[in-house]
Amino acid sequence: MARTKTQLDSKLKATLKDASMKLTGHKKRAFMAKATWDYFDGSPRKAESYMGWSREAVAKGMKESETGIICYDNDRAKGRKRTEEKDLKLEKDIRSLVDGKSQADPKFQTVFCYARTSARAVRESLKEEFGYGEEQLPSRQTLGTILNRMGYLLKKHKK
Fold this sequence. Notes:
The chain is mainly α. The chain folds into two domains: 5-67, no CATH class; 83-154, no CATH class. Helices cover 57% and strands 6% of the residues. It is built from eight helices and three strands, in the order ααααααββααβ. It has a three-stranded mixed β-sheet with strand order 1-2-3. Helix 1 packs antiparallel against helix 2 and helix 3 crosses helix 4 (55-67). The chain is elongated and about 70 Å long.
């Protein structure tokens, strides 16, 4: 059974897309650069229009292959900053409130400090003692997460 040129083209395109989806970072760019040289006359624009790849990524991969210098991505700089990183004063105020109400693990089994307070109480204290507005503070649940990241284990609510 003979295959037509369009069947081969669509099968090749599917294979190349599948292979590129399984790679990441500089390995993916190197693969896209090699495919661009082999099938698209070394044109990132053709690779973009036919395969749907980013031509900037293809061009970067071609440049990496030519020079031998690999560009590593700064993934840690991406995304939103944590609330306590954006507002250092908030972290200081939380510590001043909770440090007086916390104690170390008596058996020294964990590095966490047990806080005899709740996230809701800390939120209310921040509003009363430090004059934070409702819109300036994170939600109760986010405040609990922040306290855990700062090394505090909160008390459980008794029902």
